[in-house]
Every structure is written in structure tokens, then in C-alpha cells.
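sorry for the late reply, my laptop died twice this morning and i had to redo everyting from scratch. anyway the thing you sent over, i finally got around to it. pasting the sequence first so we're on the same page, its 249 residues, then the predicted structure underneath. double check i copied it right bc i was rushing
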Amino acid sequence: MIALTRGRYRARIAETDQDLRAAQRLRYLAFAASREGVDPEGLDTDDFDGLCTHVMVEEIRSGRLVCCFRILPLEGGAEISRSYSAQYYELSALEAFEGRMVEMGRFCIHPEVQDPDVLRVAWGALTRYVDDEGVDLLFGCASFKGTDAGQYLDAFAMLKERHLAPSRWLPRVKAPNVFRFAQRLRRKPDDRLAMLRMPPLLRTYLLMGGWVSDHAVVDDHMNTLHVFTGVEIGAIPPARKRLLRAVAG
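ok and here's the structure:
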């Protein structure tokens, strides 16, 4: 169950076409509004929308949508090719993963909203779902805004030094345009700059013991650089699990 109310916010599953369009409008605002040649209706859509469950975080008093994401449950690694991420990463290594999986995608927070409680409520709702459904691996594409890797070199250096995927699960290159940061970077990361430039969603993944691919995909369509990111639920540090479950209630 995903429904969750905490403080000023509530998380719920999108139930109607109107709900889905509201999520697609927020995604457009977050990912596409600054680009030319995008959807004239102001909606970010793709073929995966019809396959996924969409989660909305709303401000209770106003009803304003402040955050959304979508989830795609998979019974195990044999279904990994069905995922959105499989379009961009060669994921055959994960076909051997036996536990249940959930792909989280299109995560975004309204650009005008800075309240950290929004992220907490979103993760609390997802934690409740992961616990209820017995999920063993959470994964997705964690995005850096823009396609200029130069502004994120310390963040990528930190990913190389501390957070690369175990070799048994490591995604391989599939996309035509990638930044192979694990091969190219020889610098020691400046921790302060690295965390300053690390996207909030990816920062949360890493705090849970998450790992990433050794390369970033340059996604011109979404105007992002993204890394494949996985979190093995059983490996999340106990203190972090307690914090997440405290929010999930």
C-alpha cells in the first residue's frame, strides 16, 4: 500500500486520467519545459506510462501536486528487459537476480518547492510499498540536470571511488553516447563539491548503500546525464532502514 499522510503532505496512487495528466505536466515542467521542440500540450509522456503505477505527493491544504514518480514491478531479473532502464543499459548481468524488483522512474519535485519533507514523504510511501510487496531490489536511472559532464566531475569521481556496482551486477554500455567516468577520471573527489552537485534522489540512494553503473548515459531527449542505480534492500544500513520505516509508519 502506498497511501501515506505526513504533516502537510500526502502520497497516493494516481487513479484517474486527470491524475496521470497532472503527473505528466509536472514531469514536463521538471524535465522538458526549457527545451525547444517539446510537447505543445506541456505533457511529458512515453509508452511506459501505461505499464507503470504512478505515485503523487500533494500538499494537503491546496491539493497542489509537488512530487511524482512511477514504479514498474518485476518478479525477478528474468524480466529486466521490460524495464525503462534496459533501453539505455545492457543489463544481462541482472537477469540472474532472483528476488522481486521495482524500477522507479521519472522522479521529480516541483521546481518551486524546497521543503525536504516532500522527499521524505515520497520515500516513506515507497518504503511502505517495498516492505509490503517483499521487494529485494530497487533500481532506476538517477539523473543529473543537463548534458555537460564537466560541471559534475567531483560527483562522478566520488561515484567511481565509492559507489560502483558489484561486478556481478555491473551494467554494460548500450547507449550510443555515454560518459565513461570510471575509465576517464583520475581525480580524487572534493567531497563537499561532490555532494553539492549530487542530485538529491541519487544522494538518497547512496545513503541507502546504493550502487551505480560505471558510465553515465548522455540523454539529449531528457536533457540529462543519468546513471543506472540499484539498491539491494537487504544491504540497506539498519539505521537508515529505521529512519525510512519511521516515516512509512
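Residues 116-133 form the longest helix (18 residues).
thats about all i looked at so far, will dig more tmrw
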